[in-house]
Here is the input.
Amino acid sequence: MTIAFVLGGGGSLGAFSVGVARWLLVDKAIQPDIVTGTSTGAIASVLVATGEIGLLSDLYTNVTTQDVLHQSFLGDLDVVIHGYSNSVDPLKNLIDTYLTEDRRQKIINKGVKLQIAATNLQKGIVEYADETSNLDRLRKFVLASSCQPALMPTISIGGYEYLDGGIMQMLPIQRALDLGATKIYASATSAAAANRPPITRHFPNAPGTDVFNYTLRRAVLLMTDQMTDDTIALQLERGVDLTAFRPASTQIGDPLQFDPSLMAAMVDHGYLRAQQILP
Amino acid sequence: MRALPTSILALGLLAACGGPELSCPEPALPSPTPTYVDTLESLVLVPARANLRDASTAEVDSFASLTAQTQAACGESPPGGACDLTTLRAALVALPTPDHPGVFTGIEASLDAAIASAHADFAPADRDCAGQPEAACDARAITGAFARAVCGVRNP
Here is the structure.
């Protein structure tokens, strides 16, 4: 059996998948042969691939928004000025600190196939960096994989611009299958459609409504939730041996706000949810 | 009924009568090169905190008292008798659970997998145990996790 862990996107909500991985790797002692990740799942997949789940859960429960993003007080106006509303310099530093050459070598030595998804904006396809990519390329892919359109900058790699892998592959199950996976454990950060209640916020057309921070983000969330639903449904219909882990209900929290106490609650929920789904 | 070891009775008594204050560690990004104690602490933390979220205030308080006693013992040089894995585990499952009967046995049951994982990652010679016996070193790490779990649940 070739086992794959697939970790989906969702910013800070990715803490849920950290709890899931904690249950699978430690309590169930399931060792993945393949780890694929998109966006926040790309960041997590590096430490899942090395087996450093303690470090991963510590990282996800101590990181703050300032450690990830430099958010402008200008809101929408900053998109006009810079082309994006949040600098990711802090996230780049974080990735450089934890994604080291030693870790890349450790993944190679363990024989785990790592796949980091990012969207090539020129080619219009998802591309993957893996453990054999050089460290600089791997780091850039992890960063690009995490960058949401308009909210964060594009990342230049080899003459192309890249953004969030979640634009096209929110939950890269197919990549794991293409690499020979026969058993998939996939963790998504959104609840299943039936467990997503309506929200109460309105989205009026008026100056100062900060459309990038509210309307665009809501739209992206709806698209990615639907993409996740469709991906899971498609693979189950095809008879793929897939165990999907999703929160019991919509997670409380803004994907771009990194609040350690909220993220600790998400890690714990992921752990208990995985225990419930795969006792 | 089998007699409880003296150290467990002493822990129970101290927990009931008050004792050392629980020390909450300052939140900080983890070291990119975690030690054995860091690793075991982090591995124990998630199931401890997840289970503790269901506990009643009284149950959290008794868990916090036990943790503070063990923390104090592990802080002594050499570590006090209560800084011992077997003692800690026995005291943990002996804590009263008037509201959620499985809460502490659930935490205790999760320890084996966490310890096995940390032991697999660090050979004995690579562990930052400062010459302490394994049972004291592991108790120190687990107590650190318990303290963080209590602090996380009490002060979200």
